[in-house]
UniProtKB/TrEMBL annotation:
This is Transcriptional regulator, ArsR family. Pfam families: HTH_5. Gene3D superfamilies: Winged helix-like DNA-binding domain superfamily/Winged helix DNA-binding domain. InterPro entries: ArsR-like_HTH, HTH_ArsR_DNA-bd_dom, HTH_MetalResp_TranReg, WH-like_DNA-bd_sf, WH_DNA-bd_sf. It comes from the Bacteria. It comes from Neisseria mucosa (strain ATCC 25996 / DSM 4631 / NCTC 10774 / M26).
Length: 107
């Protein structure tokens, strides 16, 4: 784990910080972050995400493809409908932290 105080393996530390930095960059995109927040709550189709975001389905599809290629989401096909869901525990932890911080700010 990255945050151990006795972290001595510099190469592993560098690899882990790069991996986490890439994850944060992926989540930091406003559209992808909104998609991930929605997928935390329930499975959603491209049409549902597109409508909620006010974005074209092609743009949403591109974001979903990126999130899926990085292992943050997966999908299930129900006949002609594809439902996406969040599968990354790390991304969920980051999003929960962001949600918690936003709730504290609002209070």
């Amino acid at each position: 784990m990255l945050l151990k105080s006795n972290y001595t393996n510099r190469k592993a530390y560098t690899m882990e910080t790069k991996r986490l930095s890439s994850l944060l960059k992926l989540i930091a995109n406003p559209e992808r972050m909104a998609i991930l927040f929605m997928l935390m709550d329930s499975e959603r189709s491209i049409a549902e995400l597109s409508e909620a975001l006010g974005q074209p389905a092609t743009a949403v599809s591109n974001h979903l493809a990126r999130l899926r290629s990085e292992g943050l989401i997966d999908f299930t096909r129900y006949h002609r409908i594809i439902e996406y869901r969040l599968v990354s525990e790390e991304a969920a932890a980051i999003l929960n932290t962001l949600r918690h911080l936003e709730n504290r700010k609002a209070a």
